[in-house]
Amino acid sequence: xxxxxxxxxxxxxxxxxxxxxxxxxxxxxxxxxxxxxxxxxxxxxxxxxxxxxxxxxxxxxxxxxxxxxxxxxxxxxxxxxxxxxxxxxxxxxxxxxxxxxxxxxxxxxxxxxxxxxxxxxxxxxxxxxxxxxxxxxxxxxxxxxxxxxxxxxxxxxxx
Amino acid sequence: xxxxxxxxxxxxxxxxxxxxxxxxxxxxxxxxxxxxxxxxxxxxxxxxxxxxxxxxxxxxxxxxxxxxxxxxxxxxxxxxxxxxxxxxxxxxxxxxxxxxxxxxxxxxxxxxxxxxxxxxxxxxxxxxxxxxxxxxxxxxxxxxxxxxxxxxxxxxxxxxxxxxxxxxxxxxxxxxxxxxxxxxxxxxxxxxxxxxxxxxxxxxxxxxxxxxxxxxxxxxxxxxxxxxxxxxxxxxxxxxxxxxxxxxxxxxxxxxxxxxxxxxxxxxxxxxxxxxxxxxxxxxxxxxxxxxxxxxxxxxxxxxxxxxxxxxxxxxxxxxxxxxxxxxxxxxxxxxxxxxxxxxxxxxxxxxxxxxxxxxxxxxxxxxxxxxxxxxxxxxxxxxxxxxxxxxxxxxxxxxxxxxxxxxxxxxxxxxxxxxxxxxxxxxxxxxxxxxxxxxxxxxxxxxxxxxxxxxxxxxxxxxxxxxxxxxxxxxxxxxxxxxxxxxxxxxxxxxxxxxxxxxxxxxxxxxxxxxx
Lengths: 159, 517
Ligand code: HEM
Ligand code: FES
Fold this sequence. Notes:
The complex is a heterodimer.
Chain A: H1 12-35, E1 50-54, E2 64-67, E3 72-77, E4 80-85, E5 96-97, E6 102-103, E7 110-111, E8 117-119, E9 128-133, E10 139-147, H2 155-158
Antiparallel strand pairs in A: 1-10, 2-3, 3-4, 4-9, 5-6, 6-7, 7-8, 9-10
Chain B: H1 3-24, H2 33-41, E1 52-54, H3 60-63, H4 66-87, H5 95-104, H6 109-136, H7 145-167, H8 172-185, H9 188-194, H10 203-212, H11 219-250, H12 267-273, E2 308-310, H13 311-336, H14 361-367, H15 371-392, H16 406-433, H17 436-439, H18 445-450, H19 453-472, H20 475-500
Antiparallel strand pairs in B: 1-2
Bound molecules: protoporphyrin IX containing FE (HEM) and FE2/S2 (inorganic) cluster.
Protoporphyrin IX containing FE binds at residues 63, 66-68, 70-71, 74, 127, 130-131, 134, 139-140, 144, 147-148, 151-152, 154-155, 158, 241, 244, 248, 254-255 of chain B.
């Protein structure tokens, strides 16, 4: 009777058989795992996140303008310029702007004039996008980069 | 060639049709019980049935035909789906136009599309009802636990099929439903954001990227959804259905009262008790197959031969009847009601309100408090909880009887009332009085994730079923309480999401109160 104390003899055949089985199993598993990398893209097939806003003079302080195609609001105050993403932070619907705030049509999130959540399920404030000045003096915003809400961009100071 | 050979050739040619037929169908006319059994077990497609079934199986009250209806709908969907694929172009530029062509130009295209759409809705409904029938008749009990799990897999695959199909027309309805769905897949971010760890651990973003192949719904997403809808999920469904049907046979047919599962070899002893049945005399002729010879748990097929009938023709006839009935229903719906097609998808202007398909509107209602809880946490708890039912409730109870015993009927009734009340409150309180953020504007997000109408509703249901468990000391009663509560919650929330929510997800008693814009 083989037991833990006196294990039965493992024959060469058993050992080789087991080794073969495990090798086959691991090879199949390994190649499957390797293949699963295929659906994960290295580079996302998308247009650049950066887009031109125009020259600073187009946004006089006190004005605000919705750029529908880019789904952003450009807001200009005495403190500077800000670009707010109009993509709802809840589940990605496009919010609408009404001067004193934003409303989302999908599940009723509401945001204040500076993008802070005032009601509804949105977990966080609307994104403030990074702004920079291109060499030709035009403003450029980047949907891929966020800045702290409340950080206005001073174009005039540099110009 | 010799004269003899010529004659043989001639004879064989004349006998060809008969020989061809007999080489395929290897039994005589199915008029004896023996030939009827053979007709079933010698046919690859039919042998998924037992050769004999308990006569209870054929009663409408046993199954309400819901499994067979679901299977019929799956066949109808496969058939119509293949025809739709002849013209459908899975590209952002082609999809919408090709659906328009199918709808307005191609002969029978509109009817095919309508039937496909209606059958899809009906299948979700019939699969859910089938699950309820299996649950309330306690048919998930040993030895059927595994088939219940396979059923859960089928439920998920059915929902996934409907959901992926939703994107394919590439109209406004499709685009925004899928945008919301994909962001729900990314909603673990709500939690990881609140815990401040999204930067290095972002399962939500990863899932969405796998699903969409991009960070927005676009061409890559359409290709992936098309692949899932037309290839991967149908194959998964066929495999699971094969296992599901085969398991029914192996588990001894449908669950029925006073059924004993006999270990292998004891079948003979039991069949001696059988009364004077025309059937048991035939048993000697009938092969029960290898299963009786190998050790281990074997099908309990031979327990009550006196109460069985041959599957051919009784079961097959019933199945054909159900199929024809289902087909008729789809046809009538398809002739009179068109499948919707809105305007071309517009990524800049969402629909208002943007609603998911009806069976997800209960979840959308919960999502409108917290995306993570409504879209991921509660569905996951529901699926895992449902899957555990047959493993946690192992009380021996006769299967096949709806809510066995007066006390279980009472528990189901009370749970239905409790479940309804809680669900109504979970909608009425936030609608009338607002929720945490309206009372304490600065509450941290983590707090809202933990305490929102969805989590509280779930907690109330679980507490209720634990109370029932404590009072009755019965896991079956407690399972009934939980299942009934969730069912009522699902119904109420789905109704609210479908009928009572309008633009901006505001509450309206009727569609006619919606603001016009
Ligand atoms: C695509 C979806 C499904 C199809 C086509 C299907 C089909 C069937 C059919 C034809 C039967 C025979 C009895 C009857 O008609 O009721 C059956 C039985 C059964 N189904 Fe399903 N089913 C599906 C989904 C499910 C789901 C979601 C569950 C539960 C989670 C489930 C669990 C069971 C169990 C446990 C049985 C055995 C019942 C008994 O012994 O009485 N099935 N199914
Ligand atoms: S997507 Fe804006 S509230 Fe849900």
